[in-house]
Amino acid sequence: MFQLFIQTNSPGELTNWTIPFIQAFRKQVPDSEVTIFLTPCPYATGEESKLALQTEGVLTVYKPKDTISFMLNPFKKPPKTQKGALLFLGGDPFYSKLLSKKLNVPAFAYSEHNHNPGKFFKKVFYLHQDGNLMSERIHQFNTQTKSEISRQNILTKHNLTDKNYCLFFAGSRPQHTQHLIPMYTEIIQQIKTQHPDFHPLLGLSPFTTEKKLTELKKDHDLSPFTIIRGESLELLRIAKLLVTIPGSNTAEAMYMR
Q1: What is the pTM of this model?
Q2: Per 3-state DSSP, what percentage of the chain is helix, strand, and coil (rounded to 5)?
Q3: For residue range 87-110, what is the model confidence (pLDDT) as tens digits?
């Protein structure tokens, strides 16, 4: 049994790097288990562990505070590992140094940048020479789902007709969603006064909880939107225009074009 330990942190790294990597890794190494260490991140939503645990092959997920406790508490014993490795996929590389030492496994890293994130890594895989994890994810999506069939499927699934939709993404973090949705609602109301046939979609992040959605519906009129959760690539396929803020969705849109 091979044990893969992954360090990651924010929603973008988890959905666009970590989960697709695990899915590909498990196909090549089915006799394996994955443990995810989430590290502190100012952009985290607090819902990362729930999504990570839904990924097939993931055995354990350490929340940020648990990761820190595991690294620094000498009484917390690491799992017994005969064959394993640690992969850095986001966060502070220094945590990988501590985790690698605690777990007694070699550390590897993936980096979007050209500089070495740390000399203690056994090998660093670079975007510019070894491959782009996000673009590969989009490529696999496009390869596995024929565009027109996928477009019709998503329209049918959500009872939509083939129109020119404008897609609004409200971000993955509660602070963004809380302020963006009222602004989006006001914009749509103004547009509809001149263009009543305007068709807005609201794509909600999988990190937006049902509780948060209930609060938003209570505080704001979301009736102008067709609300769809957690299907960013499918939504990008049926939309003619995207309105969002900088983040992983902008990169997805670039690779989807």
Answers
A1: 0.87
A2: 45, 20, 35
A3: 999 999 999 999 999 999 999 999
